[in-house]
Structures are given as C-alpha cells and as structure tokens.
Amino acid sequence: MTEQDQTELAGPTSPVPPPTAASESAEQPRPRDPWDYPRHWIADVLASDGGVVHLRPIVPDDADRVVRFHGGLSERTRYMRYFGPTPTLPPRELARMTTVDYQKRVALVAVLGGEIIAIGVYEGLGFDGKPESAEVAFVVADDHQGRGLGPILLEHLAGAAAENGFTRFEAEVLSENPNMVAVFRDAGYQLSRNFDGSTVHVEFLIDPTEALLSVRNARERASEARSVANLLRPSSVAVIGASTDPKKVGNTLLANIIAGGFTGPVFPVNGPGPDTQSESEQGTSATGHGRRSPGHRHIRPRPPSVRGIRAYPTVRDVPDPVDLAVVAVPAAVVDDVLDDCLVKGVRTLVVVSSGFGESGAAGLESERRLVEQAREHGMRLVGPNALGVANNSASIALNATLAPRIPAAGRVGFFCQSGALGIAILDTAARRQIGLSTFVSAGNRADVSGNDLLQYWDTDTDTDVVLLYLESFGNPRKFSRIARRVSRSKPIVAVKSGKGAMTAARAERSSAASLDDRIAQMVLEQAGVIQVHSISELFDCATLFAYQPLPRGPRTRIIGNSSVLGSLAADTARGGGLEVTDTIDLGAGASEDEFEAAVTDAMRDPAVDAVIVVFVPPVAVDADWHARALMAAANTPDADGPKPIVTTFLAVEGIPPGLMKPGGNGLPECGSIPSYGSPERAATALVRAWQYARWRQRPEPEIHRPDGTDPEGARMYVREVMDRHDRDDGGEPTDTLGPVESATLLRAYGIEVVPFAEVSTMHEAAGAAERFGFPVAVKATSPVWRGRLDREGARLDLPDATAVITAFSELSQLTGDDLLHVQKMAPKGIGTTIRVRDDRSFGSLISFGLSGRTFDLLGDHGYRAIPLTPLDAEELLDEPRSAPLLGGYAGEPPVDRSALTDLLMRISTLVDDIPEVREVLCDPILASPDGAAVLNAVIRVGPVPTRADTGPRRLA
Known about the structure:
Blueprint: E1 43-46, E2 52-57, H1 63-72, H2 75-82, H3 91-98, E3 105-112, E4 115-125, E5 133-140, H4 149-163, E6 168-174, H5 178-186, E7 192-196, E8 199-205, H6 210-232, E9 237-240, H7 249-259, E10 266-269, E11 273-274, H8 279-282, E12 299-300, E13 305-306, E14 309-310, E15 324-327, H9 334-344, E16 348-351, H10 361-376, E17 380-382, E18 388-391, E19 398-401, E20 409-416, H11 419-431, E21 436-441, H12 450-459, E22 465-470, H13 476-486, E23 492-496, H14 517-526, E24 530-532, H15 535-547, E25 555-560, H16 563-575, E26 579-585, H17 592-604, E27 610-614, H18 624-634, E28 645-647, H19 679-697, H20 711-729, E29 735-736, H21 739-747, E30 756-759, H22 762-772, E31 776-779, E32 794-798, H23 801-815, E33 820-824, E34 830-839, E35 843-850, H24 853-858, E36 861-865, H25 870-877, H26 897-913, E37 917-928, E38 931-934, E39 937-941
Parallel strand pairs: 5-6, 9-10, 9-15, 15-16, 16-17, 20-21, 20-22, 22-23, 23-24, 25-26, 25-27, 27-28
Antiparallel strand pairs: 1-2, 2-3, 3-4, 4-5, 6-8, 7-8, 11-12, 13-14, 18-19, 18-21, 29-39, 30-33, 31-32, 31-33, 34-35, 34-37, 35-36, 37-38, 37-39
GO molecular function, one term: ATP binding
Pfam family, one: ATP-grasp_5
C-alpha cells in the first residue's frame, strides 16, 4: 500500500452499465450482479489541489483500465501495495479485483478523464454471521500522489463498510511505508498498531466520531477553498469565443479583462469554422435585412488577433499553461471546448453562455450534462449563464465579467446568481464607495455555489465582510454548518429571495419554491447570518460593517438638529432591540463646536455603546463644518475601545467625501463614517450590527451529546424496520413507523413515551388498564380523531375497568377504528409539540410550539436547523409568540424548561445520528412543573436525501 498525502479527491465518469433500481437503497439485500452497485456510492469529490475526481464502485468492464493503471505504477509503488515486484496482474487476480459483491468485498476507483488514477478496496474478515472487521488497502497512481486521494478513498470505503454492517478496518503496512500509517492517523481514526518485523498491523473503528468529522470538515474546507482560489487567483486566462465584433460577449469579456489590468497573460481563442454565435449575440445584420434566419451559419477565417492580442484556434493551441477559461460560445459547442480544456489542463471554467437551465427542461438536461462533463475533466464550473468573476487584489486585478462597472478594491466579498442583478449590484456598490475584494456571479449555479465561496472567504485575508444574494440553497445543512463557523470572525449579510427558482424548469429542484420567510430568518439567525430584505438594506449593512466597529452593547445615543428626525431614529432603534439612552436635540442653529462637543461626549461616555447623528441643514448652506465636527469627534479615544457612529449627512448614501478616512489608494478605509438616506435606515443598520455582535458574544457551541443514547442499536433497528417494511409493502421509498416501533426507536435515545398498549377487544383494554394502574385513557388511533378540539376521540381519567370497557365500546362504535390505545394518564400540563421534518429550503428542521390545531393554523412555531446546540434549544423554547404560557402566565406555575430542552436535544441527536429518520412528530407533549411527558410519537423513515450533509464528503 502507498499514499503520500492526506486530503480530498474527485473525478470523471467512465462508461459503465447503469446499476439497476434495486441498488437504490443501501439497506436492501443486494444481488451479486457485478454491475448492480449502490448508486449513492457514486461521488464527485475534491482533491487537495481543488481539482475534481470521480469516485465509483469498480465493475468488470474496468479490467482494461486496471491493467493500464497497474502498468503505469512505479516499481516502488507496486512493491508498497503488493509487498513484492508484481510487474503484471495475473488474469485471475484481475478478474477478482474487478468482480466484487459490494458487501463482503467492495472496491472503489477514482477516475479522471476516463482513466483510473486510484483504487481502494476492503474485504471482510471472518464473514460468518454478523460482519465486524474488514481489511482495507488502496493504491494511487504516482502522478496523483500528494493530492489527498488516499484519505478520500478511505473515507468512502468506510462509509460503504458501515452500511454493510462492518465496524472495524484492519490493514497490513510495510514498516518502510510510514506514509500509509499517517494516512489512517491523520484521517482522525484512533489506531491500534502491532509491529511484526517488516510489517505493521493497524486496526481502527470506523464509527464517525467527532474527531473524525472534524478532520473531514477541515479537509473539505481546505479543498473547496483551494478550488475557488484556482478560480479567483489564476495565473493565466483564456477567453474562448473572443470576437473582433465589439457588440459580442466574447469581445466585451476580453476588453474588461484587459482594461482591468490582469497581471497574467490573456489568450483570445477564436478558431476558424462555423460562425456559432447565438442569435442573441448576432444582432441586426449590417446589410439592413434584419436578423439572420435561425440556423444560418457561414465560414469565417480566424482573426490573427483580437484587441491587439494574438488569437488561437483552440485553447489546446495556446503555447503556455491556462488556469482559467472564460467560455462565451453557444451551448451547442461547449462540449468541444471541454475536450480542449481537458487536454490543456485548465483548472476552472466560467461559462457565460446561455441556453441551459434557464431556457427550459431541455436546457436543464444540457446543464446537468455540462456539469458531469466538466467534473469528468477534473474542472470546476461557474455558471452557465453567469455574469463572471472578479478579483480586485493588486496581485491579480481580474475582471472577467460582463459588467460595465466594477467597484474599486476593498474588503467586501460578494456572491450572487442572477447576472442582470449582478450588474445592478456592482453599480450600486461603486456608487456607495463599497470596495470589493472579490465578486462571483454564479448564474444557474450548476456547480460552484455560495457554500464554496464561504469556504474561500473564511481564510481569505483580503475579505472582512461577506455579502450574499441567495435564491436557493444547494445544500442547506452544509450552508448552516459553514456559516456558523465563518460568522464567528466575519459578518455574513444575506438577501434571501423567497420568490422561487430562476426559471420554471428549475423550480422542481429549487428549494426557494416553498420557502417560508419566517423560517428562513430563524435558521439564518441561528447560523449568525444577518438577513436583510432588499439590496438597499444589504449595502446599508455592508457600509457599516466595512468601516465601523461592532457595538459592544445596545445602549445608543441619538444626537441631531431635528427632534422629528431624532424621534424616527429612536423609534426604529427601540423596535429593533436597541436601548436609546438619550435623544439630544441641539436645535436647528447648532454650531460646529456644539455638534463636536456633543458627539465627543457620547464617544467618551462609558454608558454609550453606539451613536446615531441626525443632521439636515435648515437651509441650503455649506455643511462641510458638520463633517469636520463628526470626524474630529469620531477620533475621540475611549478606554473601552472604538464605538460605531452612523449619520444621515445630507441624506447622502455611502461615504461622503467629508466623512471619508482615505486609505493609501485614496479609497475609504476603516474609520470612515457611513451616511444613510433616512434616520430609519441608519438606525436599522445599527440594529443589524448589534444583533450580529450579540450573536458573536454567545459562547462557542459545545459538542453536547445527551446521556443514555444507543446510536448503533437505533441505527440497526431502523434498518431492520425498513427492510421489513420493504418486504411487506413492495419497497416504498419512505414509510411511517407504527406507534410501538416509534416508541422503541425513541427509547434508544432516552425518550420514554407514556406507557400505552394497542388493543382490539374490551378484554385487552381492561387488561392493559390493570397493568398500567388507574386512571387511564382510551384513545382513537385514526388521524381524523386524534387532536380534535372537542376531544371526542379520547376518554380521559377512567378510574376503573368498567369505565375502560364502556369507553372502548363507545369509541369503537363512534370512530370505526379496529385498534384503540389504552394509555396511562400523565400529569396535567400544557400541551406542546416537537417536530422534525425535511424542508426543501433548509434540510432537516426541528420546530417547537404549543400543541393544537389553533396554534398550527396560526403557524405559531419556532424553527431551528439540526443539529441543535444547548443554547439553540433554549432559544427555540422562547421563539413561539405563545411561549409566555410556559413561564407561569396568569399565575400558573412555570413548566420544567430543562425537561423540554433535554427532549429537544435528544430528538435532534437522533435525527443527526440517523439521517434515514426523515420525520419525527411528538404531539402532544404535556409540559408541567415536574417534567415533560410524551403522549404520542410518529416517525417516518426512508432513504437518506441526496443533499443531506451526512456521510463521506462530496460535491452536490
């Protein structure tokens, strides 16, 4: 075995017969057919250098590829893997390697450009009865060692082995191959090693411990950040589709790259052949006959140069390396471009071409193929239908966009999807003097997404503030996980559009189509993201975050020369949670010295955390004196550190010249005072800053696992139930567990449902009541009778067997239910409900509220993304508007909050541990001063959603 590094992998698809539908679920017994492998094991992943590699199970048709792969290995690599020279693979060994059963023996191959570049395999040891341990081995092509493929193969093999019931990996490693042992150790596994002369025997459990997940996330973070760095920090750029016609997209792109001063070489690519410009680019013909007819093509010679730079027929003809290719050719010829880029070794593509997902169902299918082919070629893709990318770093100076105006260099990173909106955003940023570090317009966001950019900006020293315009979340759970980490050091301000996907064709897979804005706000706030409702408010916040410090607390002083404007600012500030300590009206005739003295006093006052200065001159006079007064006062030293100050200087938006603290390049820098068009907007921006500062002051979330949980037993129980249900009902993709099954699963996580029994006769009902002890309840089981306001579906507080028999008879006749429940009476309390469900916008969400149809109708629930921290659970209890009822309303005793938070944490942990659990409903839960009693539970299970942020790391 050999491998020289520890990082991530990904790669392209080679032609193999498609697996059958029977392999869709990893829980089904799989046939031994050599092509019938679990489809969800296929993965595109990122190597440590940011390149994509395709991972899939091996099939018999890979025999020739394996031979070529083995023949390309160095003698030392073959020796390390096979403990001997092994110049060739015997036919019997080759057949054994390529024909596996995907249970006891599993082999995964990493593929790039149709060729195998790495192989990993595990084989069960002692497969009598329940499997436990398997031997693992892998080998990586010499040219691809150092890219982190070994740890990725190990991660995905461990995932497959765990699905098949294995709990441990073992490996034999030559003593002279310490790198191999390092791969296991650095992957986060706790190793047990035994030395035996020339070999080392290694064993480790493959359960996903917190340490292991931390290592996986760190590796994912580094590789995704590197892939974006390949995009935003290229050493050379090719413009494919460059044109001499200034009306065409390729010409505009090339012109912007040149005008922006890109520091590396630029290569126009515009080969001879058909004029394949799209109709939208062709415009009106010079002859005056209007637009060319559809399908019209003519042959034109390749221009020797475009904008004075030598042009090339294809990117493969460029004599120097090409890092980034900006593609502006029609959709129909993009395939040829991808082939050329593979040969050339291009790392990243920006496709501005339209005609893909935004054009309808056929275009969406073309877009899917584009992503598959780009990844097959080892490349990442921005677009299609993108506006482009920009990096204002002086060492890069890249403007590969179609935007006519790019803001100057600054400390703000921006991501959006819509190209048209991107142009407006860039223009607004420039007018407000908000400098950008980097900008990405992802268009249809088929590959590179906001998650990737967050990973990059997290470690980018040129970016202090992150702005997002989001239309949907590709992987909501992952977004929440990344945003929580990034927000700890850099503010993330987001506009979340709730109006649906960009096109009707994409609405099927767009999470925004069913977005509830209130839920979005709760979940974004949980991750520390500042959600705003408009582009204007986005830049209001960005201006403050870019140039002013965060407030230390909510205490705010308002100073101005208009009592009316001061009152507007105060009302907005209070409504957003700020404490307005003073509102000082200096009067319309206040002098420069009076303004400076008032603001200076506020900056020195330890009881003031932030200052709003409202200024509108009573007549059209020179107001430079006001700017001088503000800037002088703003520089007042304070023992507790700087304070934020905002103003409404002449209703100017952005940084007026008089309030600018110029940096070395003449642009605003930290200490400049932002101005707003109205006092409400100034106060709102400060409210957002305080909300974010308060979130950052919260302690770092601690890993907390409730006591008394049995995740392995619960996981096996879920699989057994799913297998049993599949056999019984023909294999439905999801299924609802019965009350007894649901209660059994909850018990594995320390959650006890109040004892109940399912009964079908009066005698069974009476017997169950005797066992539980009186009083008891008899309840209907059909959904139409559960939870009714008139409680006609239940008979409560039954004191003896006679009452139970009577209740059973009445309910059977009334409801028609063949099966009723007899349940021990729980202590009186307030009915509450906890529910976990799949949300198309945010993945698994947990909600809390009071129980009953009235509260459901009013939508009075709080929401959080899973997994919860203890602080999340505490805050979730207070989220519903009816939450005061739990705290001792109208003289009632308060309920036991700790019991409810513990219940929330246990349910969150259950769903986090076992993603096959798709929905949990505990309703009602009677909360009382003595605890929380779960009366009823319903759990739905099914295959893991493909976008869930669980299991081995992979690209969406």
